[in-house]
Amino acid sequence: xxxxxxxxxxxxxxxxxxLVPAAGAAFAAPATAPQSATASDxxxxxxxxxxxxxxxxxxxxxxxxxxxxxxxxxxxxxxPGDNYMVRVVTKLDRTQPHDKAKGLDLELTKAASAKPVLVxxxxxxxxxxxxxxxxxxxxxxxxxxxxxxxxxGMSAELYISELGPKVVxxxxxxxxxxxxxLDRTHPSLPESAGFIARIVNxxxxxxxxxxxxxxxxxxxxxxxxxxxPKGCKPSYKFTDDKPVTKPTTPAxxxxxxxxxxxxxxxxxxxxxxxxxxxxxxxVETAADTADTADTAxxxxxxxxxxxxxxxxxxxVLRRRRAGxx
Length: 325
Description:
Blueprint: H1 2-28, H2 33-42, E1 48-53, E2 56-63, E3 66-73, E4 88-92, E5 98-101, E6 104-109, E7 117-121, E8 127-131, E9 143-151, E10 154-161, E11 164-171, E12 177-183, E13 196-200, E14 208-212, E15 221-224, H3 286-324
Antiparallel strand pairs: 1-2, 2-3, 3-4, 5-6, 6-7, 7-8, 9-10, 10-11, 11-12, 13-14, 14-15
């Protein structure tokens, strides 16, 4: 019995040992899946890399998403064949064809045509063109950039397209480094930015850009966005912002206020002498009337007491005279 039991335990242990490698392989197999998924995801951002200077590479694409130039930071020692899937500095496309980075002016020209071109202008004014792969032409419904100085070393570029209004904020230094971007879904900077920059009526037919970069009593700057080009329609329905209305105090009516009837104890007292026109006459209260009544009663009582005293004195005097006679 014991021998049979021991034999069964050994058999189970051996079977388990043989299954362990297979189980480990089964759990280890999915670990390679994320790597292949990552590689397939990178295909969305892969393209033709060209070095444009200042440690930057432009990855040029022109597929179903339209022309794109992904500007990535690779370092000054980059050469063709090296990895370029690194940090993104900015991206140029049909909705944002212009930006600046590390002293370079970047512009995606002929963005609506089938053969767009990236033009990179250095600080010394030297311009270099980088053709994108050929693609399909489209209707250019974009207007801009319209430059606007907003003070405090800041500038703004205004755009309008079928996607709505957009503002690219640039700060001085480093060739106009990008500070932030406003659009229809994010029309205002957060309070932590330290100044005001917002799109008023972002989904309306006539949006306006407002800013205030200085403190104190500095006025708020305003400029309207350019109008939509003819033949172009926005991809959204116009909905103007509703103005904030404050409750107004109702105007007084011409109906006079009701006059409360006087109580029985109130009497009108007409003052002596002339009364100016429009002057109000004083009105005695019930308390004043009660004080007057009490005074009158006390005066009458004193008079009665005096009269009874005089009568009693007269009777006594008569009796004395009769006794003397």
